[in-house]
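Researcher: Let's run the pair from yesterday's discussion. Sequence first, then tokens, for each.
Model: Starting with the first of the pair.
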Amino acid sequence: MSTVLKFRRGDTTASNAFTGAEGELFVDTTKDTLVVHDGVTAGGKALATESYLSTQLGAYTKTVDLATVATSGSYDDLSNKPTIPSLTGYATESYVTTQISNLIDAAPTALNTLNELAAALNDDASFATTVTTSLSGKQATLVSGTNIKTVGGTSLLGTGNITLFSGAYADLTGKPTLFSGAYADLTGKPTLATVATSGSYNDLTSKPTLFSGAYADLTGAPTFKTINGNSIIGSGDITISGGGSSFSGSYNDLTDKPTSFNGLGLYNANLTGPILLNGIVTDYFGQSQGTGSGDSILTSEGGYAVRWKNLKTINGNSIVGSGNITISGGSGGSSLTYGQFVDNTVALTTTAANQVIDTFSAVDYRSSKYIIQAVCDGVGIHSTEVLIIHNGATVYITEYATIFTDTSLFTVDASIVGDPAEVQVTVTPTNANTTFDVVRTSLAARTFTPPSLEGDLMTLSGTEDLQIESGSVDLNV
């Protein structure tokens, strides 16, 4: 069995970090000692130096004969040294590197190893045979017209371009005759009726007889009576005659008139010749009579008194006489005993600020309550309750209840405008094309007396002029 003697050299740090093969020696240059390795222990086992032994054995007088190598540390002083074989003929690392570089030369990176070359040859150990087999039977020489065809008499061999078919349908030979697309060129086509091309109802055959629209052409029509021999079917007017002459419309021309009339608020009396007064049949008397309690004389014609009994008034105004009686309540409103009720609809097309949706008289009404509903298609609904009061100059407004489905659609405000004064309620819509439904309840205005000013009005000095509703008063203060 051959034996190899290995030596290493380094400081204590390197020695402690090294685990040598069995029998390998390490020269510790820090401790100047030799370390023997057993192939297992890191740092090996250091041989004791003379100075170490002298220190440890200082008290002993026995002399120990040490081998020369123990103090020299020289390989040459070892006895029974193994024979180190000669390195002649072994390649050095630099030699091997040079030879490999020469082998690779300038080969590309993808083909500079044996494995890459083998992969390029499809790992085929018989690549040459495979290629030879693949090429066998191939034409060695191409001869135009013999072992390679020509195109239109032109050889495929050589350089240049061969002009082939132009691609135009007109250049085709033996091409078929294509259909023109005209109905007239179709063969075996069906014979169509005239209406198929004219589209006219008149060209239809066996068409039904349509109703003329005349009542006379109806079958099973109901039978109507006539008026004075005139049919009610048709246009124009039917003159209703009586005894051969048209009725004048006068009460006097009526036949079988009553000789007395009683009830319906008219005074009991014998009618000797009733007349028609403003569309109301009234009675009159054959002699002059005084008005009784609750009687109201309407007019006097030819010495006859025409009267109506127990007539009521409207808002304190008698219904007797000419002219008009105005019933308060405002446009679109209903009159209440102590106020007014109004409902209306206003459609606003823009988002302009302060657009008017309602007004009421500031003189007639002091307080108003509103329910305002706004609807905007595609956006939502917004409803709010508003309470308004004013003192003749300033409007006070509170919006105490509001709700909407998606987003607020408007804001509301009010002010006093015009002469005579009116309270004007306005809105500013968030969206164009918003419809407002407005319901208002107003309370009638009552006399309002401001607090009296009594006592002294103190200022720093001088006389102050205080303006009040009844005029100007000088107050010495």
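Model: Moving on to the second of the pair.
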Amino acid sequence: MDEIAILVASFLFGYYSILVVKSFDVYLYELKTETMVGQVVSTMPKVKVNDIQIYYEVYGAGFPLLMITGLSANVDWWDPRIIQDLSKKFKITMFDNRGAGRTDISNKRYTIKLFAEDTAGLMDALRISRAHVFGISMGGMITQELALNYPEKVEKLVLCSTNCGGTKSVLASAEVMRLLMADGSALSPEDIVRMTMPLLLTEDFIKGNPDFVELEVQQMLRAPISNEAFMRQVNAIMTFDSYSRLSQIRAPTLILHGKRDILVPPENGSILAKAIPNAKLVYFENSAHGLIEEVDKMIHVLLNFLTES
């Protein structure tokens, strides 16, 4: 798969953020302005987990909260508003999944279970015995696998814009798949990214937030995942299937999904909610895959769930 195809697919399970990186410091900015909203945070080191070195960053203080990204994504992709608000209440640990960002690739066969093992190993290395876990898209799959295989490590579970995999999940429409798989050989990576935006964000949001869209395009072009690592992650997603085991999840679970998500259709939220005991499902009527259209509402719902006894 070439870089153009990777850039298209990387949005499918990713999250959206504007993190401006300068030298070895990370600055948190508001999305529509260049007003600093957070102090300079030094980037964290890598730590040895299983057979790889995992890159991670830590923000805030309080009860631990792990945030897990999606296909090809890395810590730079998280929306800084989420980091800013959640870090006021929790000690956030974000990290690059195996093969993405600054984390090593390795020669192992990638599976969602392996990603969950990496997550559990990172928790052990950082001496996090138990945490809330928030995963988006592929990160939501990893979060499910973590809760199933390491229940003692999970306090509360948040599954965002994700599915259970296998035959019980609802796939994107044929039209969306045709758009994703359209021949881009004559187009530049930037052209492909711009063409993909309507599949990720609502038309109204794109029209009303041109500065955000422009910054997002540049962010996505900054450091695409390697061909090898991308294909390994795709294979992990293709073989994932948690449906028959979801009834075993005991952690309080919140499911978040946009009603206008055309990449991971919203029906997947209902499927998860019915299969996981006592799960709470919240739909966002005006949001697509990343819930960016209603990010303030999403943060409010998320904080209420994580802080309630």
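Researcher: Give me one sentence on the second I can quote.
Model: The chain has a mean pLDDT of 85.
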